[in-house]
Amino acid sequence: MDAVTPEPLDAALASDLAALDAAGLRRACRECDGPTGPRALVGGRDVLVLASNDYCDLARDPRVVRAAADAAARWGAGSGGARLTTGSQPPHAALERHLAAFKGAEDALLFGTGYMANVGAISALCGKGDAILSDELNHASIIDGCRLSRAAVTVYRHNDMDDLARALDAASAARRVLVVSDAVFSMDGDLLDLPRFLALCRAHGAVSMIDEAHATGVLGATGRGLCEHFGCGRPDVLMGTLSKALGSAGGFVAGSRVLVDFLRNRARSFIFSTSLPASAAAAADAALAALEAEPERAAAARENAAFLVRELAARGVAAATRSAIVPIPVGDETAAVRASERLLAEGVWIPAIRYPTVARGAARLRASVMSAHTREDLAFAADAIARALRAAR
User: Are 171 and 200 in contact (CB under 8 A)?
Assistant: First the structure.
């Protein structure tokens, strides 16, 4: 029998890309010609941006930019090593102390990204013989952390605390049980039922962990997140990012001193990664100080999102949110892409979210609202969204 000649890699990949094209699932990067505030230059055109996670408009805040520039000038463009070798600098430690105080925790630990924080923490805390219970709509970084841990993973129904209770009962024989959930679900904008979540974890002796990537700087009277929003206790493990409402880059885990020391010694994504540049740490520290001084930013982001939902409803478009994320259901992937492209042509940038980010047939436009958007911006966007959806369908 003649040997089968392997298909050349590029030809195989081109075939896969063509299949993505046909399914309306191919993606490409779209460049901005400047910083992305509520408006940005895209392809030389000024557009209204409802696509940024910079909820409190801090990435371009002069105080934040100046802190980053000053730190880069003093400590260099890069740290030169992992935190446990040469990569620990004063801005890292200062930010960790600030984050811990802001979150009401004993200590905090920085990671290169929020993705690395979730993967590192989950895979360090759990292994063979342990059980992890994970919400079915958790972020990919949580899912990957669960997989890497080699623990037994049970996926419970989205935000269904009765189903979680059943899963906790079934996991009672495990050595350690970790229950992990997003605080704000990034594609739906809804909130974890934190009080019941924590009560169930305590009643079953399980470790509780939440991802506050989209909650920090948005929820609570002072933007401190889901715990402040509900006025309840904290989870055992609290993860967050610096790259959304804090306008910088990186991630963190906050909790007890023992937890943080353990992760410092066992989280592989911390141990084996070059640390954040001092400029990113200093920028996040300055953004945190700005958020503390101006809590009205968090309130404005929430109020603007609620206003957009009302404006959409007045135009016959169904949407709902309890955060700064406003998902607008479309369903069909190609229709969502057409709607997004039409919106951009009209000067409104809202991405089409498709499989595998969401389930097949559950494509949507995902609008993310900033504190700096004006009501005129949002009313204009609502008009454009209604027209785009009618045309796409």
Answer: no
Q: Let me know if 98 is a catalytic residue.
A: no
Query: Catalytic: 214?
Result: yes
Catalytic residue selected from 186, 248, 273, 340: 186
Please tell me the predicted confidence (pLDDT) of residue 218. 97
| Dihedral, 308, 310, 316, 319 alpha carbons, nearest 10 | 70
Asked if 245 contacts 372 with a C-beta cutoff of 8 angstroms, the reply is no
Catalytic choice (103, 139, 229, 244):
244
The pLDDT value recorded for residue 216 is: 97
Question: Half-sphere exposure of 330 toward its Cβ, with a 13 Å CA cutoff?
Answer: 32
pLDDT of residue 289: 98
Active site residue 204: no
217, 291 contact by CB (below 8 A):
yes
> What pLDDT, on a 0 to 100 scale, did the predictor assign at position 24?
82
φ, ψ for residue 55 (rounded to 5)? -55, -35
Query: pLDDT below 70 — which residues of the chain?
Result: 1-6
Collect all residues with Cβ–Cβ distance below 8 Å to 63 and sequence separation of at least 6: 286, 289, 290
Per-residue model confidence (pLDDT) at position 384: 97
| Domains located in the chain, CATH noted | 28-59+295-392 (3.90.1150.10), 79-276 (3.40.640.10)
Active-site position among 214, 229, 269, 340:
214
pLDDT digits (tens, 9 = 90+) for 70-104: 999 999 999 999 999 999 999 999 999 999 999 99
**Calpha distance 252→95 (Å, rounded):** 10
